[in-house]
Design goal:
The chain has 258 residues and is an alpha+beta fold. It has 8 helices and 14 strands. Strand 3, helix 3 and strand 4 form a beta-alpha-beta unit. The N and C termini lie far apart (41 Å).
């Protein structure tokens, strides 16, 4: 049902994407906001309220909700209506719709839909992680071992000195650039070994993806090795790593800031 909601939102996003008439605004932090973000938000909120009207919804495009209110939430939806707005504007196709269900500070369900690519990823706690494309469903599993070179996936839009320093320390590696939460999906499907994120992200950027990576057998942890948690006072994520195999996990404790 949640996958269907993501598909519905993705269909509207693609209508705007193909039309090429994209109203663009700037949010308070200077990041771009488009008509597609808002249209997707409206569809997702309306449909999620139909599943369970008593579960709160926190979306990137929602009005701010104080922690005094959020602190009482035991279960709620966490949504990024259009992850990768810069990729959307740049016409790379590497943007997604992300929907997660959070229970007691951790994601228990996650859906990531990449409408321009035609792939949908989904997972639920204890059930596993899956990818569907062209009617074919594949169960996801992280890579169990590294090859001669560690496959590092990094943001197409965000780099920086911290990431460069990290890459210098890991030795031989193969770098792949990817936009939005598709970087996590590469970890979950075993096509990359590690995704280091040493720059700013928000909780809605990672929640759905964390469920998918974890159910595929991987980890999404801060630089101390703790699973990312949600509904914090500050909705910013700490710097983190998403990875698959245990040999790669050792790199988590050998970062520039560790």
């Amino acid at each position: 049902m949640v996958a269907s909601i993501a598909r519905s939102a993705g269909q509207k996003v693609m209508e705007i994407y193909r039309d090429g008439i994209i109203g663009t605004f700037r949010k308070g932090d200077g990041s771009p906001l488009t008509e597609a973000d808002l249209a997707s938000h409206r569809i997702i909120v309306r449909e999620l309220e139909g599943i369970e009207p008593h579960w709160p919804i926190l979306s990137e495009e929602s009005a701010a909700v104080s922690f005094d209110e959020r602190r009482h939430w035991k279960r709620y939806w966490l949504v990024d209506p259009l992850d990768g707005t810069k990729e959307f504007l740049g016409k790379t196709g590497e943007f997604t719709i992300n929907i997660a269900l959070i229970e007691e500070r951790f994601p228990i369900l996650g859906v990531i839909y990449a409408p321009a690519i035609g792939k949908i990823y989904y997972a639920a706690r204890g059930i596993g992680a899956f990818c569907e494309m062209d009617g074919k469903v594949e169960r996801l599993a992280v890579a169990q071992r590294c090859g001669a070179k560690i496959r590092v996936v990094a943001s197409r839009s965000h780099r920086g000195e911290k990431l460069d320093a990290f890459l210098e320390k890991i030795g031989e590696f193969e770098a792949v650039s990817m936009g939005s939460s598709l970087k996590f999906c590469m970890i979950a499907e075993g096509s990359a070994d590690i995704y280091p994120r040493l720059s700013t992200t928000m909780e809605w950027d990672s929640a759905a993806a964390q469920c998918i990576v974890e159910e595929a057998g991987g980890q999404v942890v801060d630089l101390l090795g703790n699973r990312l948690q949600y509904n914090k006072i500050d909705l910013h994520n700490p710097e983190f790593m998403a990875y698959g195999s245990e040999p790669v996990a050792r790199l988590v404790y050998n970062t520039p800031n560790a």
